[in-house]
């Protein structure tokens, strides 16, 4: 079966080329948005041949999808503070720092915009968030084992509840995205989880 463009993960020169191209693609997205993304421009920025970029990624959606996959690979590991509130606060602060970053915040806006009109990018975005949720879900499972939340609490819903208010501020309201907001989002999710809001059969 043919491997999708940009999906290989070999080492050596190929890995260096991929890293350079994805870094250049991220720069171009931040500067021009997805509609201004051009494979020839990315190749020039990365100082690689145009044919290399076209052969490996094939299209702008293919390049953006691989960029998202790379972002998932580079994500920081979850914290383990020993308490649900501590873990959720660490998660919220990580999301807040990422979205408030002048480069990363703009980059996320661009790829989310691209995902609304391209199925391949949407699939990559779904994989990215699924990866992040799976990485952090164990902190809720650990809280259930400690008796902090009901044993049938849905860990993924709790993690989604932490980041949802932060993404709302990034994409919809435009309100400030500071650490205080992150801590409030974590506290609200922890309080709801302890109250059984995310337990199966609730509602």
Automatic annotation (TrEMBL):
Signal peptide: none
HTH tetR-type domain segment(s): 15-75
Gene Ontology MF terms: DNA-binding transcription factor activity; transcription cis-regulatory region binding
Annotated InterPro entries: Homeodomain-like_sf, HTH-type_TetR-like_transc_reg, HTH_TetR, Tet_transcr_reg_TetR-rel_C_sf, TetR_C
Keyword Transferase attributed: no
Keywords tagged on the record: DNA-binding, Transcription, Transcription regulation
Presence of keyword ATP-binding: no
DNA-binding region per UniProt: 38-57
PANTHER family assigned: HTH-TYPE TRANSCRIPTIONAL REGULATOR RUTR (PTHR30055), TETR-FAMILY TRANSCRIPTIONAL REGULATOR (PTHR30055:SF148)
UniProt-recorded name of the protein: AcrR family transcriptional regulator
Organism name: Lipingzhangella halophila
């Amino acid at each position: 079966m043919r491997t999708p463009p940009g999906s290989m993960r070999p080492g050596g020169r190929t890995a260096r080329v991929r890293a350079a191209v994805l870094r250049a693609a991220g720069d171009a997205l931040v500067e021009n948005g997805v509609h201004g993304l051009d494979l020839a421009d990315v190749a020039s920025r990365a100082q690689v041949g145009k044919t290399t970029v076209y052969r490996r990624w094939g299209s702008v959606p293919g390049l953006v999808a691989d960029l998202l996959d790379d972002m998932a690979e580079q994500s920081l590991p979850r914290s383990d503070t020993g308490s649900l509130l501590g873990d959720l606060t660490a998660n919220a602060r990580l999301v807040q720092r990422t979205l408030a970053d002048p480069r990363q915040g703009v980059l996320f806006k661009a790829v989310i915009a691209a995902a609304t009109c391209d199925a391949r990018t949407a699939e990559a975005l779904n994989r990215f968030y699924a990866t992040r949720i799976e990485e952090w879900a164990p902190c809720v499972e650990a809280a259930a084992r400690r008796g902090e939340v009901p044993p049938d609490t849905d860990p993924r819903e709790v993690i989604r509840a932490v980041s949802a208010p932060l993404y709302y501020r990034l994409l919809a309201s435009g309100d400030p995205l500071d650490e205080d907001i992150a801590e409030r989002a974590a506290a609200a999710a922890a309080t709801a989880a302890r109250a059984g809001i995310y337990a199966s059969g609730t509602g």
